[in-house]
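User: My advisor asked me to double-check a structure prediction for Alpha-1,4-glucan:maltose-1-phosphate maltosyltransferase before group meeting. I don't want to rely on an old file, so could you generate it fresh from this sequence?
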Amino acid sequence: MDADLRFGRIPITRVSPVVEGGRFPAKAIPGSDIVVGATVFREGHDQLGASAVLLNPDGSEIQRTRLTPLGAGTDHYEGRLRPGSVGLHTFVIEGWADLHGTWHHNATVKIAAGVDIELMLEEGAVLFADHASARPRDEAKVFRSAADRLRDTELPVDERLAAGESAEILSAIQREPLRALVTRSPEYPILVEREAAGRGSWYEFFPRSEGATYDPASARWTSGNFRTASERLPAIAEMGFDVVYLPPIHPIGTTHRKGPNNTLNAGPGDPGSPWAIGAPEGGHDAIHPDLGSFDDFNAFVNRAAELDLEVALDLALQASPDHPWVTEHPEWFTTRVDGSIAYAENPPKKYQDIYPINFDNDPAGLYQEVLRIVLLWVSHGVRIFRVDNPHTKPVQFWEWLIAEVNKEHPEVVFLAEAFTRPAMMHALGRAGFQQSYTYFTWRNTKEELEEYFTEVSRETPAFFRPNFFVNTPDILTEYLQYGGPAAFKIRAVLASLASPLWGVYSGYELYEHVARPGAEEYIDNEKFEYRPRDYAAAAAQGRSLAPFLTRLNEIRRAHPALGDLENLTIHTSTDPATIVFSKHKDGLGEDGSDKDTLIVVVNVDPHSARECTVSLNLEALGLGMRGRNEDATFWVDDLITGQSWQWGAHNYVRLDAHVEPAHILSVRRKP
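Assistant: Sure, here is a fresh prediction for Alpha-1,4-glucan:maltose-1-phosphate maltosyltransferase from the sequence you gave:
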């Protein structure tokens, strides 16, 4: 046969997840369910089947699952694979002639029509007899018994036919089908990375604000440091967060330093923006003297680890005019025709205190310098980097850098802070970024949320892992500015339950909502000034969302379904402000008792109570009749209020945003 033929004996097309024809690996984490699919068909009318096979990095088979046809006439099959360990795996799709399915279909049709009855029964007997020797002993006995009954002319015809579709036969064939003409697709890569690459709850805070004090007599601030910041870590851990993200901790330039609220003239005590990196004390490989030493940083990282927290460090590839790079490597910047170095701009915003990097003048030198910096922080215990504005640097550079770092340190995770065009955001994911900021922040209506949840869970998960931050120092949406406490609850529920990755910026739990006039960012912005917070007083006065955030993170940890991205299903409601989605995950047990299913119903109008009828796709919930009560209902338990209800396919819901704007319902399985 010509080896150059593109079609195998059983054609297999439209394989997924395949990124750019396999040039880039699809993404996964251990224990996650990966949706795999393909279009598989053949000539004629014989039955066929399809399987997905997961292969270890050494090429050995570790998992096989039979795919399910999606619908008549589509020829498309889907199923799920669940890798168990990290490494570069591959998968293949197998298409094959289904011998039992073809025989059973033909026999059922012909015998019902009174055509070729004995011939069809004998063909079944031969099929089972020929395959018995290749089956395990118990199955071989079942196959031979079926062959004998198919040939037993003393039995009624319907009983003889039934012998070829008994529960024992179907169970054996489900485990190992009777296959012929097996055709394999090419192997496609799946990169399975550690859990933190695809699951986690992030908390952002500024170390300099924690423990900062103000002296009214001198009108001067004293900065917080790593020692005082470490005192905040137990509270963050108690809220159930996994990652503590720190904005840049490096020396800050004084030239064109920004003052409060991004003003152009900083006072002598104004700390400046941490993103204006570089001063005589050093650049990206140094620590701001006010924060402490490397020993202090190491102690901070170690304290976080004791609390099961990881430290994520900001990687902002830019420089203040005082950065050592400016004098040592002026070629790394863009010089304008008047001899000045171009500062950063994102019209209408201007960042006169920041010089962007030019990656074209000396790429070899610059690439190696950034690699050195990243590896320096890795040597101090940092395994996660939140990368500032990666879309303003060449994608090729990120592909190289992440590959170089992950070559020796595959556990290192990079988060792209890329609020930009979809093509760039997706390219960064293909290039190696394990996760990314998203448009979630600006998706607030039911229609917007449904569309976006469907996109990130069904269309792009092979290369784009969304981290749903509810706010950032730069982003305080009108929804939060004017939605009151209910808005903060609503956004936290949506972010924490729709995506395995979510995050908050400190102050969210205090309902901070006042924006700088005319802007979508906080007034008295922490980027430009110290902002210590009295969390204890807020909690004592009942003004803290911390208990609610804690409960959300508890729910996330207790329910495996919430750790997957591709299992989100949108359900319908009759109210334009009530969104309904579910997360479902099958367990490993055969009785279905270890299935995990949550239904999330959210009133996204923070100002009112809403009523509606919720209609559920019971198949997406893994609820066949076996999993329901005799009257076709099932029990759900609200994980926020503790209430329980009997639900069915259609259910009345009333959610008052000022009481509890959401139901988080766990489906109770029959014992």
